[in-house]
Amino acid sequence: MRPEILFPYFANISQLAGVGERTHKLLQNLLRGDKIADLLWHFPSGMVNRNYSPKLINAIPGNICTLTVRIVEHIAPVKKSQPYKIIAEDETAQIMLVFFKAYPETLKRNLPAGATRIISGKIEKFNNLLQMSHPDYILRPEDADKMPKIETVYPLTAGITNKMLNKCLQQALPKLPQLPEWLDANFLKQQQYPPFNQALAKIHQPRYESDLQPYSKERCRLAYDELLANQLSLGIAREKLKKQCGREIKGNGILRKKTLDALPFKLTSAQENVLKEIFADQASPNRMLRLLQGDVGSGKTIVAFLTMLNAIECGTQAAIMAPTEILAKQHLETIFPLCESLGLRAELLTGKVKGVKRKKILEELAAGQINILIGTHALFVEDVEFADLACVVIDEQHRFGVHQRLSLSQKGKAADILVMTATPIPRTLLLTSYGDMEYSKIDQVPEGRKPVNTLVMPLAKISEVAAALQRKIQEGVRGYWVCPLVEESEKIDLAAAEERFAALQKIFGKDVGLIHGKMKEKEKDAVMEDFKTGKIKLLVATTVIEVGVNVPEATIMIIEHAERFGLAQLHQLRGRIKRGFQASTCILLYNYPLSENSRARLDIMKHSEDGFEIAEKDLELRGGGEILGTRQSGFCEFRLADMEYHKNLLLAAHRDAQLILSTDPELKTARGQALRILLYLFERDQAIQRLKA
Question: Above 60 in pLDDT, residue 218?
Answer without folding.
Answer: yes
